[in-house]
Amino acid sequence: MTGRIIPDAARLLPWVGLEGKPCYVLGDGTGYVSRVADDVESVQLTMAAELLDHAADMLDDRQVTAAQLRYVVARMAESLRDVHRIARSRGERLAAPGAGPGG
Question: What spatial distance separates the first Cα and last Cα of the chain, rounded to whole Å?
Fold first, then answer.
């Protein structure tokens, strides 16, 4: 089951504004800010996948120190926040099944 992107819906952007507040853009997803957001999301998702691979390698290495593991876990928490924001943004823009014309 797939949803449709709601045109002119507010899109949660993959970055935060001042004081950590969420940023949004309105539009049909084809404007400059939406394209930049798509590019940022792509980079964030690629970095998350690479971080997972790195963490798996570290777990297999018995020479890794506790400090190194704490560092990678902190980076993973940051990455998970990014990926969660991307998932929320995409989920919010999906039309509910059966909503609107042709649904």
Answer: 11
- HEC secondary structure over the chain: CCCCECCCCEEEEEEECHHHCEEEEECCCCCHHHHHHHHHHHHHHHHHHHHHHHHHHHHHCCCCCHHHHHHHHHHHHHHHHHHHHHHHHHHHHECCCCCCCCC
- pLDDT digits 0-9 by tens, 1-56: 445 555 567 899 999 999 999 999 998 888 999 999 999 999 999 999 999 999 99
**Closest Cα to residue 44, out of 5, 16, 24, 14?**
14
Where exactly are the structural domains of the chain?
10-93
The CA distances from residue 78 to 8, 54, 70, 83, in Å, are 29, 15, 13, 9
Q: Which two three-digit tokens encode residue 64?
A: 């890794």
Phi-psi region of 38 (alpha: psi -120 to 50; beta: other; left: phi over 0): alpha
